[in-house]
Structure formats: C-alpha cells, structure tokens
C-alpha cells in the first residue's frame, strides 16, 4: 500500500500517482488507486475512466482503465460540485472506499492523498497503519519545506516514509539542453534530510500535463517519451528495490 503525498498543491502529485499506477500495471502487477482527495478529486479524469462503478451483491466493483482499478468521490458527485464535508463524513467515505469495494487483491494499492496534513491523512493512517508513504515535491526550497511537513506527519502516526519523488525537475528545450526552471537538488536534499531513498526525477513536459487533463496518461499513450521513461524508472525502483511487503491491516481487510 503506497500513500502518495505532498505538502502543497500544484506539484503534480495526482499526475504522478496516475502514471505511476499505470507503469506498475505495465510491469505485470494488479494495481488499484484510491482517490482520497475527496475535495479535489481528479484521478478518474486523469486516468481516462469512461464509466462509473457497478454494484454487485452490495459490493462496489470499481471501473478500470489502462489496467488500473480506481475509486473516487468523482464517481458519485458532479465534477463541478463541491464536497463540503467535515471529519466524520470524510472518515466514513474513506472507510467505504477501502472495505466496500471489490479490489480483487491488488499487488499495489496507491492512495492519492490530498495536499497537507488534515483529517483525511490522519484517517488513512488509522485505516492503513502498515502503508508506506512517498512524498512528491518540486526542486524549489519552498515546496521542499512544505513537503517535509507531510513526511513528519507520517512519522508522527508511525507511517513509514519510503522515498521522495521530484517532479518538474527540468525542461528540455528545442535546443536539446536541460533547463532547471525551478532550481535543482530539492528532492535529493529532502530525501537526505529524511534518511530515505531519492526515488527519482520527472521532467516538466507539456504532454504530461495535457495527457492528465485529457485522460490520456503519457505512460499509456507515449511510453517511450522522456517523461514516461522517467516515471517507468520510478516504477522499476519501487517494484524491485523498494518493494513493499504484502501486508493488510487485520482490522480493516481489503475485500477481494
């Protein structure tokens, strides 16, 4: 179970979650994603899911795209409808996402957390105490400092911080040169400070952003592109070198 977190919005966390999940599926794994960003749900759009969940014997069967199953608040409210919920309702919704959904024993369950350290992150920590957290940041110091708070929150609730992923690391110009628009070294520095693995870097690419907006994830539609290769490299490191132990919380079994 991989929790994907960031300290602030705008660092491309959900885009990383979406494409990383597909990259893991391309490696032959059964993969599922929980969109735990109840207020800012975006995984269905980014994944390109074109149908809603079905109900069979009172169980929710999640839709699938590109070999990845997913569940999200986006399937139950209109895309432009705000979700104005407080702690107890959020807690219950997340519990249902984990226990009332037929996940079919995934090899990897990725949870796309909302930015920050609020109620949802605390509920997920309670539901999935043996999960492992990956922090997504960008190179600049401001993003790095905020991302560090998400890692510290995880440590306080005994969630293992497994690694740091740096997004928007560079832009490759028409001249073939790399331009570090947001500085350099932030992800590696954060990983060193936390004492965890620096998993890798993902470049700033228009097609990655456009694909997320259009429901055409770059790892699926252009797997040999610069950004897709970078994300597939992340998946390889996580799969082979940082492989999570296949563990479930006995008190909250994922149904399969």
Query: What is the average of the pLDDT values?
Result: 89
In the CATH hierarchy, what is the superfamily? P-loop containing nucleotide triphosphate hydrolases
The helix-and-strand class reads alpha/beta
Order of helices and strands: EHEHEEEEHEHEHEEEHEHHH
How many extended strands?
12
Question: Oligomeric status of the shown chains?
Answer: single chain
How many domains? 1
Q: What helical percentage do the residues reach?
A: 25-40%
**Rg estimate, integer Å:** 17 Å
Shape: globular
Task: Provide a concise account of the structure shown.
Keywords: ATP-binding, Iron, Iron-sulfur, Metal-binding, Nucleotide-binding. This protein has 256 residues and is of the alpha/beta class.
How are the elements arranged and paired?
Elements: E1 2-5, H1 13-26, E2 31-35, H2 43-47, E3 54-56, E4 59-61, E5 64-65, E6 68-72, H3 87-99, E7 108-112, H4 119-127, E8 132-137, H5 141-156, E9 160-167, E10 171-172, E11 178-179, H6 186-194, E12 197-202, H7 206-214, H8 218-221, H9 226-241
Parallel strand pairs: 1-7, 1-8, 2-6, 2-7, 8-9, 9-12
Antiparallel strand pairs: 3-4, 5-6, 10-11
Describe the structure in your own words.
- With 256 residues, the protein is α/β, with parallel strands linked by helices.
- It has one domain: P-loop containing nucleotide triphosphate hydrolases (Rossmann fold), CATH 3.40.50.
- It is built from 9 helices and 12 strands.
- The protein has helices spanning 13-26, 43-47, 87-99, 119-127, 141-156, 186-194, 206-214, 218-221, 226-241; strands at 2-5, 31-35, 54-56, 59-61, 64-65, 68-72, 108-112, 132-137, 160-167, 171-172, 178-179, 197-202.
- The longest helix has 16 residues, at 141-156.
- Keywords: ATP-binding, Iron, Iron-sulfur, Metal-binding, Nucleotide-binding.
- InterPro entries: Mrp/NBP35_ATP-bd, NUBPL-like, P-loop_NTPase, YlxH/NBP35.
- It holds the Pfam family ParA.
- GO terms for molecular function: 4 iron, 4 sulfur cluster binding; ATP binding; ATP-dependent FeS chaperone activity; metal ion binding.
């Amino acid at each position: 179970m991989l929790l994907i977190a960031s300290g602030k919005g705008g660092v491309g966390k959900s885009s990383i979650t979406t494409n990383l999940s597909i990259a893991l599926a391309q490696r032959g794994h059964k993969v599922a994603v929980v969109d735990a960003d109840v207020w800012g749900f975006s995984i269905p759009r980014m994944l390109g899911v074109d149908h809603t969940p079905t109900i069979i014997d009172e169980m929710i069967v999640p839709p699938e795209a590109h070999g990845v199953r997913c569940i999200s608040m986006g399937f139950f409210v209109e895309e432009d409808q705000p979700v104005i919920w407080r702690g107890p309702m959020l807690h219950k919704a997340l519990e249902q996402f984990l226990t009332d959904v037929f996940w079919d024993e995934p090899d990897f369950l990725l949870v796309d957390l909302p930015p920050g350290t609020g109620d949802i992150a605390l509920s997920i920590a309670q539901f999935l105490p043996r999960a492992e957290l990956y922090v997504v940041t960008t190179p600049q110091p401001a993003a790095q400092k905020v991302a560090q708070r998400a890692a510290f929150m995880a440590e306080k609730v005994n969630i293992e911080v497994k690694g740091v992923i740096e997004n928007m690391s560079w832009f490759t110009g028409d001249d073939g040169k790399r331009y570090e628009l947001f500085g350099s070294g932030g992800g590696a520095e954060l990983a060193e400070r936390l004492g965890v693995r620096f998993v890798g870097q993902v470049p700033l690419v228009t097609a990655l952003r456009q694909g997320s907006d259009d429901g055409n994830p770059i790892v699926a539609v252009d797997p040999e592109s610069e950004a897709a290769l970078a994300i597939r490299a992340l998946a390889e490191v996580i799969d082979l070198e940082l492989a999570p132990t296949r563990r479930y919380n006995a008190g909250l079994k994922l149904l399969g």
